[in-house]
Amino acid sequence: MASAGNGQQFAASRAIIGWMIAATGAEVMSQLIRLQQTEPPAWLFCDYAGRLAALALLAANPAVRGVVYRAEPLKISLAIVINWGLLLIPICGAAIVAGHVYAAYLPTFRLGTYPRPDGWLLIFDLTFGLALVALHEEIVLRRAMRLALGGLGDGRAMTAVSSLLFGGYHWWTGVPNMIFAGVFGVFAMLLFRRTGALWPVVVLHFMVDLICFI
């Protein structure tokens, strides 16, 4: 069983780079189209469509799908996972302060802003929308990215590069938010490696986004 699983992961690690480029390209295209939208419904439609397209592309290749969408058991207790979540609070706080300090003295290069929907659309976005964001970014930019960077090993180099790429993925939100995303990326990858399962990172990502948006 272990040998079969390792063989499947090895096949995926070779195949996943091209599929990662395609999935990321689909989302970047939606980001570019999104920047031209002024109405919240159109903006959110472009956002959801790009994320769903990226997830669908990674599901198209059987070798990639087998590891990207696999279920994983926790390697640590749920109590330890909760402690990691509590640890994230001061880390996020420090990253936010650093972003504000940066914005006070240096150009942010922000190219767009999130829409401000109201009514049912706000509730839909704070539930389905943020859940999709967390699921998409953790599957594509955490689990799949970890496989794609397999040549760097599974330690500090992979964590650093994946976190820089995760911050860069938020290019249109401005430098302060890219810093915040990069810091979160380090923490999220460390948690993913520690737990052995992606779902705690997805849940934590959703909660962080929900707090920031509210």
Describe the overall structure.
InterPro entries: Rce1/LyrA-like_dom. One of its GO terms (molecular function) is hydrolase activity. Residues 121-211 form the CAAX prenyl protease 2/Lysostaphin resistance protein A-like domain. This is CPBP family intramembrane glutamic endopeptidase. It is an enzyme of class 3 (hydrolase). By secondary structure, the protein is mainly alpha-helical. The chain has one domain (2-213). Helices cover 79% and strands 0% of the residues. The chain contains 8 helices and no strands. It has helices at residues 2-34, 40-60, 62-68, 78-105, 119-148, 156-169, 175-195, 199-213. Helix 1 (2-34) crosses helix 3. The chain is globular and about 40 Å long. The model is unreliable at 1-7 (pLDDT under 50).
Keywords:
214 residues, mainly alpha, 8 helices, globular, disordered N terminus
Number of strands: 0
What structural class should be given to the helix and strand makeup?
mainly alpha
Radius of gyration over alpha carbons? 17 Å
In whole angstroms, the N-to-C terminal distance is 45 Å
| Count of discrete alpha- or pi-helical segments spanning 4 or more residues | 8
SSE sequence, one letter per element: HHHHHHHH
* Relative helix content: over 70%
Average pLDDT number = 88
The shape, in one word, is globular
Please state the oligomeric state of the protein chains shown.
single chain
Biggest beta sheet summary:
none
Beta-strand fraction estimate: under 5%
Number of domains: 1
Query: Low-confidence stretches at least 5 residues in length (pLDDT < 50)?
Result: 1-7
Enzyme class: hydrolase
Domain CAAX prenyl protease 2/Lysostaphin resistance protein A-like: 121-211
Keywords: Hydrolase, Membrane, Transmembrane, Transmembrane helix
Organism: Dongia sedimenti
